[in-house]
Every structure is written in C-alpha cells, then in structure tokens.
C-alpha cells in the first residue's frame, strides 16, 4: 500500500479521539471493544452511517457460529474461526445473548463429492476440530428427512444473535458511537493522524484511523489515500424461510466447492426456531443491492470497470449461470434444496431478507480467500472480512486493535 497526499479537510492538533473507527458492524465494534480492553483510557470513536449497528453483513446472515472446518490450516480464517467460535459462545453466555451449540451435518449427495468430504475430515482434524463420520443410516438418525451417501458431524458449530452481539460489544467498549455519520472525506497525515468529514459537515479527528467499512472498505481506503490493490465485488445471498421447520432439526450443509468461498445452499435452524434456507450467490447491482431492483449506476460501473470482475466472469460463468437460474426461478432453487431435503416443495419456501457479501477481488480475478488486513500511515484497513468474520470477530478485533495501538504508540 502507498500513501497519496489528498487534502480534503485539515488535520489540527486537537484530537477528538485516539482511535477513530469507520464502520459499526461487528468487526468495527469488536475492534473498539478490544482497544479499550487492551489499553483502558484510550479514547475510541466509531462512525456508522446507518442509524444503528449491524445493519448490513452482520445483521443479514444466518447467525451461524462456524467451527472453522472449511478453512486452510494455518490461515487467518482457520485460526480465528476456531478460536472465535469458542470465544463467541463464552461472550454470549456472559452477556445472556441467545445462542446454542447445535453441531451440524455436512452431507455428500453424490459420489463425486465423497473425496471432498473426506478432505474436510482431514482439514477439520488439522484445525483441531472434532469431526465424526456418518453413513446413510446415521444421517437419517440425526436428520430423518435428510438424505445423503455420507456425512460428517461437526460438534462445535452453533447459532446466535449477531445483532445482539454487536450491540453488546458497542456498549461494553465504552466508545463514543455515532450513528447516522456517513463519512465522505478523509484527510490522513502521516505526522498528525486523520480528520474525517461526515455528510452533515461534522469533522472528527483521531490519532489513528481504522477502516472497518465492510461493503465500502476499498472506497474508504482510497479516501484515506491508500491503494487497497483490490476491489469489493458485492454478491447477494438470497434466503427463504422453511414453512415446515419440523423438516429440519439443526444445521445441514452440502459439500462446498473448494474453488469458491461460498458454502452453497444450506439449512439453518436459527436461535428463534425458524429454519433459513440459502443463500445462493449472485452479483449485486449495488454495494447494498438486496434485490434485483436496487441498482446504483456509479457502484455498478466501478464493479464493471475492475478487470478482476471480468476475469471472474470468464472463469466461472457456468457456476454463475447456475446461481442466476436459482435466483430467478423458485423451482430451480427448490431443486437445489431437494438434493439434501427431498420432502421440500416450492410452497415450503417463503421469501426472507437477503444479504450482500463484501468479497474482495484482486485485479487478476482472484477471489481473496482469507481475511485481509493492511496498514497505511496511522491507518489499519480491514479489506476482506466476509463469513466467517462474525464468528471470528473477537480475534479479528484484537488483531486490528493490536495494530492500531502499535501505530498509536509510534506516533
């Protein structure tokens, strides 16, 4: 990353805070929490453009506490998800936040998936996760309506209310959290810090800037004068609610395709007892494009102008075509679900709120697979934190806080 001088608002000697966090999702609020835990007395301000916390990725997922079984051993995702899952359960218990450790099944429905399932067994064991292999009869015993050739049971998976977690992190942090604060300009000076102007003209000055802007993190990095060397390409995940929740006891997943960071259409019994079905993964026409009718030409043009977007399309057009088909055809979506749950019908699928995944894509079309955190002068940028970032939010927050406090000490 490099620094480019950009004078938009003037940084002065008077600071409003020591650490200024942009983004009030679970990662931004976890960072604020970690800073004040590690260095009591450090003044933290969080700027969030929405009128409350966790309005985007954090509040629009299926609420799963991921075990870490999918992720490459030694990667940040593997280490932080395994550690974060245990910490998330403990955090929820400490603050009386609804949660449950349910375990989940990953089910192979075709012979071609069996080698990938066995690879997950090995990966889980390398990541220190207890994994139990099941045959067809054991699958039916665990989930009477689910059919498959083989499965693995991952006992450390759970569910929780991430919106409640985010709210509690913000409250427990003691930070000055400002909602409705849409950042429009940043003046970052290596010798002084950063001054941020919000849409209403307010200027907030901090010694160190932390970018946890999620769907807008690449744009925020550029506002600060850094080249993030990636672009957020938004993918919408569409969900249904199962009208007959009694068909599913817990969490049931397909065997994922290792070429993609998406887990495929799965079945999730949430903390409220309802069963989520989904998501798929289709290109969104806006950073916050929660439906096909939401189009923001400037954001769409930015996605289409990024060379990596076209390289993804050329490499994976067959996969993308299938996802688009499932988006526009409920019958096709039902067909995908029936691979795991043969009893489901189109009438069982009731539309539910969609989410958008902030997926970092490199110029060459590589989908960034791991969490990505980079630094600039007096700045820490979180540039790729999709699922399992909610699960891993406490370890991620500590790592970002460590870097921010190191920059603060050096200033």
Provide tags for this entry.
8-stranded mixed β-sheet; disordered N terminus; 11 helices; 411 residues; alpha+beta
Walk me through the structure.
The chain has 411 residues and is an alpha+beta fold. Helices cover 31% and strands 25% of the residues. The protein contains eleven helices and 22 strands. It has helices at residues 26-38, 76-94, 114-126, 136-142, 162-173, 217-223, 297-305, 307-315, 317-328, 330-338, 393-410, and strands at 17-22, 44-48, 64-65, 99-101, 104-108, 131-134, 150-154, 158-160, 176-179, 183-189, 193-198, 203-211, 231-237, 240-242, 251-254, 266-269, 275-278, 282-283, 349-351, 355-361, 372-376, 379-384. The strands form four sheets. Strands 1, 2, 9, 10, 11, 12, 21 and 22 form an eight-stranded mixed β-sheet that branches. It has an eight-stranded mixed β-sheet with strand order 6-7-5-15-16-17-14-19, with helices on both faces. Strand 10 (183-189) and strand 11 form a beta hairpin. Helix 1 (26-38) packs parallel to helix 5 (162-173) and helix 2 (76-94) crosses helix 11. The radius of gyration is 21 Å and the shape is globular.
Short description:
The chain is of the alpha+beta class.
